[in-house]
Queue: 4 jobs
Job 1
Amino acid sequence: MRAASRLLLGIISLTAVSAIAEPPSVPPPQLQAPPYGAPITLELAKKAAAAAEKEALRVGENGAAIAVVQPNGALVYFEKLDDSTYVSIEFAQSKARTAAVTRHATGGWGPNATLPSPDPKLTTLPGGLPIVIGGRTVGAIGVSGVHVPGIDDARVAAAGLKAIE
């Protein structure tokens, strides 16, 4: 009887302590990414790239590379400005591919956002933006090679998006 009393007292104590303790933190809900849609047309891809190119040149950057991909990350249209580096060519395509398949902008994935991705075809570097038309992800645009102080790749990519809204 005495052992049963101690067991019951122990259970009551544990229950009281757990009731007083703070509830476990619940992670914030993930924003639902827009569903995939039909691939972006070549006409819209060219229009987005032209607007991004215009913005890059407006801010004095002649080394940008601009890629537009369809929802699965396959290249639809690509442009490089005259002073673009070879690595910017690869990064622009990787940024666009990542934004398309994840349906999220690149560069905002937490404290390790600049670490390399485990998949060499994807990147966490900023400059890739999904293209959403009619509530559906139809592709993405990726920009790399913008080195003007106060201006970044994502700002140039956003100019491309704005042109096809």
Job 2
Amino acid sequence: MKAIFGVLSLVIVLAVIGSIAKKQLFGSGVAGTGLAGRAAAADRAALAADPGGAARATSPALPSAETVPQQSKTLQQQARDRTAGALQQGADRNQRADP
């Protein structure tokens, strides 16, 4: 009897974990897309987090002629640039807030 309940509880736990994983992957619309689709989803998420950033947001340029390492370096550089811009924006905001 204990074995039946053990197996049944294991199946239920696996079903719940599978359901959560499915929602995480397919709910965001990122799963099954290529690198450009993921970058576009990341842009949408960034714009949702910072609605005022629509004017300065640029879509990552990923020409198909680039190799994967080049695309990786491009995305890394864009992430560095955006992070530096966000840090600068925060520093400017703090500076304006100080009397």
Job 3
Amino acid sequence: MSFLRELFTDDNNINEKSVIGFASFTVMSITIIINLITGYLGKELVLNEYIFNAFMVITLGSLGIGSVDKFINKKADNDRAKIIIEQDAPDVYPAEEAG
């Protein structure tokens, strides 16, 4: 219950896009497994192609956006850290004196 409470708060560490993508992937995987089992048993599982494609698009979109978002945030954090280090660090390689 605390996971759901934390999921819906504004200041959390949970990536909502990843949660939705994982849930959609789970439903899609279960559907494929059930389809394989019923096919093996000789019964046809009527599966609406539009619904399966919708879960596939949700999965790819959510996990893809989550990955791009993570990459962009990591790059921004690295840039901020580099600026802070440059401001705080003394000259490591002082200019050589002409002599």
Job 4
Amino acid sequence: MSESRRAPRNAKDAPQTQAAPPVKAVLQRVKEAYVTVEGRTVGEIGKGLLVLVAIGAGDTVRDIDWMVEKIVNVRIFETPEGKLDKSVLDVRGALLLVSQFTLYGDCKRGRRPSFSDAMDADAAAEMFKLFTAHAAEKVKKVETGVFRASMDVHLVNDGPVTLILDSRA
């Protein structure tokens, strides 16, 4: 699938309002995960988080920073007592980040999803690179899929434990 093809927006200067769509992320705690493109593995991790990331039309660097901080610090891993009280940083886990604009699929009307709240593909590509760079400043191993590619995402859920985050919640 290709990203939205609307006119480009300057992502860094976009005004931040309550009505603007948030950065969205789906976190899945995994024992292992990898992404392939045309049969070739492009990103692979062991224990950690598979994170599907969608950048919204009004998102700013501030939203990216908030989301990265939340992801690396959310206590989604278990202590020896079975309590969810450790972050990916605490367990020295890895991140596999996959751009997933379809998280903005709005199915309220009709049968075909609208992706109008997703950021333009070119601007989103830059924001996703920034997201990845900020995550790599915090977590030792950060892998990604290929932006705008048709990807096969493979994972072994751990739990399963899955959370949905957005930067405006």
